[in-house]
Design goal:
The structure holds two protein chains of two kinds. Chain A is mostly helical. Helix content of chain A is 69%, strand content 0%. Chain A contains 17 helices and no strands. Chain B is α+β, with helices and mostly antiparallel strands. Chain B folds into three domains: 22-64, no CATH class; 76-235, 2-Layer Sandwich (Alpha-Beta Plaits); 241-328, no CATH class. Helix content of chain B is 37%, strand content 9%. In chain B, strand 2 (104-110) and strand 3 form a beta hairpin. In chain B, helix 5 packs antiparallel against helix 6 (181-200). The longest helix of chain B has 21 residues, at 251-271. Chain B is elongated. The chains are: A mainly alpha, B alpha+beta. Chain A: It comes from Herpetosiphon aurantiacus (strain ATCC 23779 / DSM 785 / 114-95). Chain A: One of its GO terms (cellular component) is plasma membrane.
């Protein structure tokens, strides 16, 4: 964009400045409008799951409902507790929102990249980690025991789930050989735009693990422990009202949106799909944007479906799930990703492989034998690991909640 | 823990589906159920049967409305006879006595000539804002004068408006019959009989529909505004003596009828001690002949006067009836 502006006769520094301002505006507006749409989408979807209709009065099908909500929150009183740490209390929502907006910078909108960082994956993880600071600030600054509990819970949860979440990305990075999101999207463009990672055994497990961990990262049900309404009112948001509360809300939904975008990029091929390359140019870009948004909102639908189905976990279940279930599976997945890469790519590194199975696939010719072996092997490893770990975690589950007379007679309990 | 002390039928055994290998089957099943509900609510037929567990339950209220059951009750109203305009209320104070929040206030009507109480209410005030819609008043009323209305859209910004006076409480019987046909047909006969007896004890215009008297015909429409449709029939009804005389009657018969009535009025005028125009009272029953709300008419011989009766028969009947009334010394 900056180049085009320079050609129009702007000074180079000015064109860079203007281009950056336009990009930033697009990201901010896109993020908040997306969030507004998301709130409407979630409310309508969950309404139908509960045999209701949801907001359908303001504007066509209630689409303007979020605007009326925004006006409502803006006109509300913004109260700060007398004993609160005013500066921290004020800064907490700002930090939260800032961290969320940052991650939008590297998200590829179909074929359009606002910023192409060569370590975009790391950047996303880092900005995601900033959340916990905002949470802790809110919890501490409010000077309220519920807020503090919520903040502590939030930080504990984020720290636990960041580990499986980050490690679930490693197979993708291994398979791509790059941390740039653009490269990751390009790597999933085989087979007519359908070579998404989720179709491989490694990617499928990685997708499930990453998405689950991201639910916890975004504090979605069933992992909404920091905001558990029935236990600690609204968690770290207890003492917030008016626009500050709305900013928390905004940042939560924007981070959910970002999670959907990142998941779609990492595992569902981003904007790749049949027909994108064939169309090419602007039309192809538009189609890829549509694919990308469709994938993201389908993922968000799954989030809503889970929210409508599953009750909240206990804190110990939450931690146990992260450390005893997700983490071992993630480690196994990294192992099978290594096999995958070796079986598909290695040529000179291990010459016998080429001797046995032929040369690795190139852009022109796919080596189906190698692909089949890689699929079978990784599938065996992953399925075996899932079965084993599930069995281990379920080992001590009681069959009944009480003891039957027969069992008592046999001395089984 | 053992539950052996309980009878086996008291224990509901919840088996986990597969204790050896649980790989999220339960969760998948749950998600499937929720998704099915989503699909049915979005694309399926709206729920029509209350026993159904799936499909859209919501009724988009201002546009769609549920049909209210007949026995639905919201606020009490008072009934008056379409034909005569006589209120059914006799101010017996039963409702005022039973009303738990004590929101009913009745003033008994007095005969202006003698000062004695008359079985009619001079005023009747009901505080809708405090009424709890229990329906005790309607249940206890021996004259079926107070009934529960179906109109629930009473929201107002004007609080004093909720102290509803007699004029605004009155509805014609035809209105109540429209909202609760079977409930009215159960009590219709005895209610109308009692009304006839009470009318006899009401001199002059006492006990005649307040809305009609105070504001003319329009008042009834005001009283029944929220449920337009049922009420206007009564309001628009002509009640003068002419109404009874059919438009296509031969002139001699009309003359005959009028003379009979005049005689009738003269006889009665003696007994009534200067009460209000009696000429109006006599033909009231006859109006029924021409009204669409014939079903609400007083029971007895009147109903027999069908619309397809020949004109002279009708005149004869009229004459006979007038004579009978004279005998009774009305």
């Amino acid at each position: 964009m900056a180049d085009a502006l320079t050609q129009l006769g702007f000074a180079s520094w000015l064109s860079v400045l203007i281009a950056s301002i336009i990009k930033v505006t697009l990201i901010l507006v896109g993020g908040s409008v997306g969030m507004m749409f998301l709130t409407w989408y979630e409310r309508r979807a969950i309404s139908y799951m509960q045999d209701r209709r949801g907001p359908n009065r303001v504007g066509p099908q209630g689409l303007l409902q979020p605007i009326s909500e925004a006006i409502k929150t803006m006109t509300k009183e913004d109260a700060t507790p007398r004993e609160a740490d005013r500066i921290v209390h004020f800064l907490a929502p700002v930090v939260m929102l800032g961290a969320t907006v940052l991650s939008f910078a590297v998200i590829p909108w179909g074929r359009m990249f606002p910023v192409d960082l060569n370590a975009a994956v790391l950047f996303v993880i880092a900005t995601g980690g900033l959340h916990s600071i905002g949470m802790m600030m809110a919890g501490w600054g409010s000077n309220n025991k519920f807020a503090l509990l919520g903040g502590m819970r939030g930080v504990a949860q984020l720290i636990s789930y960041e580990i499986p979440q980050v490690m679930a990305i490693i197979p993708v990075v291994l398979m791509t050989g790059s941390m740039s999101l653009q490269k990751i999207v390009e790597a999933q463009n085989d087979f007519g735009g359908l070579g998404w990672f989720v179709f491989s055994p490694v990617g499928l497990l990685g997708f499930a693990l990453f998405f689950t961990a991201s639910l916890a990262e975004g504090e979605r049900t069933p992992f909404d422990i920091p905001e558990a309404d029935s236990e600690i009112i609204a968690g770290y948001m207890t003492e917030y009202s008016g626009m500050k509360f709305a900013v928390f809300y905004l940042s939560n939904y924007m981070s959910n949106l970002a999670v959907c975008f990142i998941t779609a990029t990492l595992y569902l091929g981003g904007g790749n799909g049949p027909g994108v390359d064939a169309l090419g140019g602007f039309a192809g870009g538009l189609l890829s944007l549509i694919y990308f948004l469709l994938k993201s909102f389908a993922l968000f639908f799954i989030m809503v479906l889970i929210r409508a189905t599953v009750p909240r976990l206990r804190v110990d279940q939450l931690m146990g799930f992260a450390w005893k279930f997700l983490l071992p599976l993630v480690l196994v997945n990294i192992l099978s990703a290594s096999f995958w890469v070796a079986l598909l790519r290695w040529d000179q590194q291990w010459p016998q492989l080429t001797e046995w199975f032929g040369a690795p696939s190139t852009a022109d010719a796919t080596n189906w034998g190698r692909l089949a072996i890689a699929v079978v092997l990784t599938l065996l490893i992953n399925a075996g690991a899932v079965a084993l770990i599930m069995r281990l975690t379920n080992r001590n589950v009681q069959k009944h909640l009480y003891t039957t007379d027969e069992e008592l007679a046999l001395g089984l309990s | 823990m053992t539950l052996s002390h309980l009878a086996t039928e008291d224990v509901f055994v919840v088996e986990r589906n597969d204790a050896d290998f649980r790989a999220g089957q339960g969760m998948t099943k749950g998600l499937g159920i929720v998704f099915r509900k989503f699909r049915k609510a979005l694309f399926g037929k709206p729920n029509s049967d209350r026993a159904d567990t799936e499909g859209q339950f919501n009724v988009q209220y201002p546009e769609e409305r549920l049909v209210l059951p007949e026995a639905y009750r919201n606020m009490p109203i008072l009934l008056y006879d379409d034909a005569t305009g006589h209120e059914l209320c006799t101010s017996c104070f039963q409702c005022e006595r039973i009303c738990p929040p004590q929101v009913i206030h009745i003033t008994q009507a007095k005969d202006p000539a003698t000062g004695k109480p008359v079985p009619a209410a001079a005023n009747f005030v009901l505080e809708y804002d405090t009424c709890m819609s229990c329906g005790y008043c309607a249940e206890v009323c021996p004259f079926d004068a107070i009934k529960m209305d179906h109109d629930f859209e009473l929201s107002t910004g004007n609080h004093p408006e909720l102290d509803v006076n007699y004029d605004r409480l009155l509805r014609p019987i035809s209105y109540y019959e429209a909202i609760a046909p079977t409930m009215w047909s159960d009590v219709k006969e005895q209610a109308m009989k009692k009304l006839q007896n009470n009318i006899k004890r009401r001199p002059g215009a006492i006990g005649r529909d307040h809305g009609q008297k105070v504001k003319g015909g329009a008042a009834v429409a005001v009283a029944a505004t929220p449920v337009a449709g049922a009420a206007p029939a009564a309001a628009a009804k002509p009640r003068g003596p002419v109404a009874a005389i059919g438009k296509n009657m031969p002139e001699e018969k009309v003359a005959k009828l009028i003379s009979i009535r005049a005689a009738n009025a003269a006889k009665r005028g003696g007994g009534d001690a200067g009460a209000a125009p009696v000429a109006e009272a006599a033909p009231i029953v006859e109006t029924v002949v021409d009204t669409p709300a014939a079903s609400a008419a007083p029971s007895g011989p009147v109903a027999a006067i069908g619309q397809n009766m020949s004109e002279d028969k009708r005149a004869k009947l009229e004459a006979i009836r007038a004579a009978k009334r004279a005998q009774r010394g009305e």
